[in-house]
Description:
Blueprint: E1 2-6, E2 16-21, E3 27-31, E4 38-40, E5 47-54, E6 58-65, E7 73-82, E8 85-94, E9 100-105, E10 108-111, E11 116-120, E12 125-131, E13 143-153, E14 158-162, E15 177-178
Antiparallel strand pairs: 1-2, 2-5, 3-4, 3-14, 5-6, 6-12, 7-8, 7-13, 8-9, 9-10, 11-12, 13-14, 13-15
Amino acid sequence: MLVASTGIAAAAPAGHAVVLHDGPGDVWTFSDSTSGYELAAQPAADVLRARVTHGSYAVTVRMVFDDLQRGNIQWYYCDVHTPGATAWFILEARGHGKGTFYQDVEGEWLPVPRVSHHIDYASDVVTMRIPRTVLGKFGDPPWVRVRLHNVLRLPDATFFTDNPMTADRNAAFTPRVPAPVDG
């Protein structure tokens, strides 16, 4: 289910937002030794809600999890589609680290210093802020569509994946989120 809303800010137009609600318990598991995906219970990978905001200066994503926990390897994927281009980003967190943000540039994952993120394990929240200027040749897009999903890898090479868009294992793009109209 999608719920569109408009944010409010005092300094600059906050932009438009889409809020994604995803029920608990729709996490999928897979491993190197199995074929296919199966439903699984893994609260640390279960994203319950996400908010995508297309602001004046950045696209911001805030994901709320059931029980986000440190440890192992976690990947948070954020694909941003604009008119004519798609930019692929991944936040990788290992162990107790705060994580490193990468962008796929011509098939190579490169660290992106201009992108900010925060992982708050106490509040079960992951936040990513992607400046509009890093969205390729369309650095000032009139709209964006965002696809989110996350993967948790345990030490035994078992993986868990979820997304805030569907109860299926395949993530979908949001509807268009328009850019704010600067007054």
